[in-house]
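User: These chains co-purify. Model them together.
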Amino acid sequence: MSWLTQFFSRQRSYDDLSEEIQAHLEEKVEELVAEGMTSEEAMHFARREFGNVGLIEEDCREVWAWPSLEDVLFDIRYGLRALHHSPTFTVVALLTIAIGIAANAAVFSVVNSVLLKPLNYPKSEELVALHQVAPGAEGLADFESGLLLSPSMYVTYSEHNQTFQSLGVWITDTANVTGLAEPEQVRTVAVSDGVFETLDVPPAVGRWLSPPDQVPNGPKRVMLSYGYWQRRFGGDPAVIGRNITVDSQPREIVGVMPSGFQFVNADFDLAAPLSFDRGKLILAGFGFHGIARLRPGATIAQANADLTRMLPIWMDSWSNGPGSNPHIYEPWRITPMIRPLKKELIGNVGELLWVVMGTIGLVMLIACANVTNLLLVRAEARQQEFAIRAVLGAGRTRILRGLLVESLMLGLMGGVLGVGLAYAGVRLLLAIGPSNLPRLNEIAIDAQTLAFTLVLSAGSGLLFGLIPALKYAGARSAAALQSAGRTISVSRERHRARNLLVVGQVAMALVLLMSTGLMIRTFDALRKVDPGFADPQHLQMMRISIPESLIAEPEQVMRTQHAILDRLAAIQGITSVGFASNMPMDGFDSDWDEIFAQDKVYSGDLIAPLRFYKTISPGLLQTAGTRLVAGRDITWSEVYSIRPVVMVSESLAREIWGSPSAAIAKHLREFKDMPWHEVIGVVQDVREKGVQEKPPAIVYWAPLVHNRFSPVARTATFVIKSDRAGTESFLKEVSTAVWSVNSNLPLASVRTMQEVYDKSLARTSFTLVMLGIAGAMALALGIIGIYGVMSYTVSQRKLEIGIRLALGAQGGDVLQMVLSEGTKLTLLGVAIGIGASVGLTRLMTNLLFGVTAHDPLTFVAVAALLMLIALFACYIPARRAALIDPMVAFRYE
Amino acid sequence: MAKPMQRDLFPGALEMMILRTLKRQPMHGYALVQQIKRTSNDLLQIEEGSLYPALQRLLKEGFVKAEWGVSSTNRRVRTYKLTAEGGKHLEREVSSFERMLKGITQVLAPGEL
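Assistant: Joint model of the two components:
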């Protein structure tokens, strides 16, 4: 008999079996009657001789191939019926599980999409970022992304390496596109040869940019992103070969990249060639991101060694101009630290996501504890049912399996509900999540998330099912039947499991509340930091870029910018205006260079420390609310006469000259053929890179300076102070004013300083919100848990309490008795929780600011708060106990 | 239920006795129990029902065949019959049991220690 026919014929063979057993019994009875027994006696005797019919039939069935499947089917039917019979329990348990699972599935989908899944490039494990550090370069420590590559470095690495299949450099920028509709500022990526080959994603239409496109002064070409192609050209494949005007220069479209393609973490509209002029390259210009694809089998260590080997070649091949020392960068101790591209892309968000995942996991444990408690109470109430089933022939394993199947079903049903909720949860996460989260567009509930949810549902089902099942499946049948559920006082042993669960819940809730508390303190500390600007919600900002192809003459650029300021200032309701090469926290790349002070000696080849510098217009400081600590602001007449004056930040003044006032009338410059600039003002420190970062030392140049490289800031953020900042009518007037000066100037990154400030706090506020949600859930579940257990205890001990009261105990005594029991549990939980917190909050040290991971104030406050709320949760059942009427209690039993 | 000398049979003993009994002649379940009880002179206490799971196991292994028929007392019964394979199995089991029994008896024999 094959297993298939066996399976399908099983019902018939079971019928055969029943018939056979029935016939056996009848034959026996007949024989016994013939021996002189009454038929009743005979029936009784025959059954006793035979044994438990149900059990034997089951044993017989188990012989055949599919017994467990069948039993499980039965258990499922039985379980569904049992759940159906207690709707309140089922709804409460299901909701608890579903919410817990939804939260976990949602966070997991983010963790999976951002951290676990490989990047969206072919063989992405071969991709690396050419990250390098330069520990010997003072001031470089502030560089967020280490030491980027210079074009000459790229050329050297590209030509001499032995460990890469391909490598290239790229940089993000913006450009003005005109001639299509309104002038538009678009996001561009400039790429060297090798970048497309490295990423290895084929174009959707046309071809990649190729080496001939990289020839300086050669034909101008460009590629489109899928989004831009759809938006501006309606996805028309005939765009290949057409020209568009980028920064007032026609460029031929050669290809379109496919949907979803990104340059590492950069969204872009256009990709243009970098076109380095080999003959003019110098050592410096460390502004390019390097990316490479390792040869198969090559390791990162080998690649690092390869770069280290090539650094001397680089220094010997190039210089910083005739007569300069080619080994000028040796003291920088440039060290390659190649990273997998994925790690580079994810950055430090991994830690944050794991902390969130961990806290949400704890919430799930607390939820499981609650459901376990419910199941324990329910199992207690169902003891009689188990006893009856045991008497009817169900073995211990059978009952245990039934209970497990039931809780497993609860878990799985909760999981199904949870997945539904998780879809909403992911959208919520994306809405409140930091908008600069890497790989944001890849986040989705996918097969892995569903598999995770399935495992989680089944796992939690088993977890909360196992304790009650093990505890009650052991059929103490006789005792259970006899007592018939009546209890005078519940034995300690029966309470132990529930008490342990409550202690665990309190401990876990405490850990979560601790981390929430620490985040609140962090957020508070961050809000109290003076960022170096004031009244951000009334500061309107926008980026305007004037390309060389539009206005070549530097002074003319500055005059145009000044004209824009004048037009803007004329708008009603505007108090003051100004512009800067970039504003604090706005995320645009910052500029750094060596700054020499006239009264300091820089020995030999030693280069001066790199300093952060920016260009600001007169009036910008006043507009932004940045205070002058000493001296005065630059005036427009000084700008027009190109007077060599400069301002510095307070930290720079203190570092070089000891105090802000000492800096006034001192001189500094950027390089040798620049005149010495007189320091006329010292500006308060500004948190350029975010509130949690140390304010950098800054040099503030005027809008027009003696600088052969960058006499003006062609791209600048215009800042307008107005009560109407951010409103639509206001922005319309602003753009009209700008276009009245030059109609080819698009406005980009239009936002208020408040938005920028909030975004810089996004990571912290996201963590705070997530931990807050987790903490609130944990607190609610924990309170419900402790309340439930105390209530149940009181209801079970009604008779005992009634007797105590009847014997003369006062209501107050009873109240105290119940309260002290609750307090004991809570105290134990709090003690364990504090111990656990000491170990666990350390994991979030990097997320904290202005507070240590073991902040005593937070610890004491959170512990006290939790104690108080837990006591309140105990107080309600305790009061109920104190008000028990002995007469009613006796009658009830 | 008085079972004074109750001792569990070792695994496989019941199956062996069933096969041995069926070797003599095909029988239905009830007759099989009575036969085993009788031939053991009621020394073996067998719960009558326990016969059936054992029969199912033998059916599954193909050591016995079952057929519905009518008994001598004119009752619809399922009659079990030893198969050739069952016969071989019985021989193997009996010889291995005898070896085991011999070993145990030698160890238990008085005066030899």
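Chain B is about 50% helix and 15% strand.
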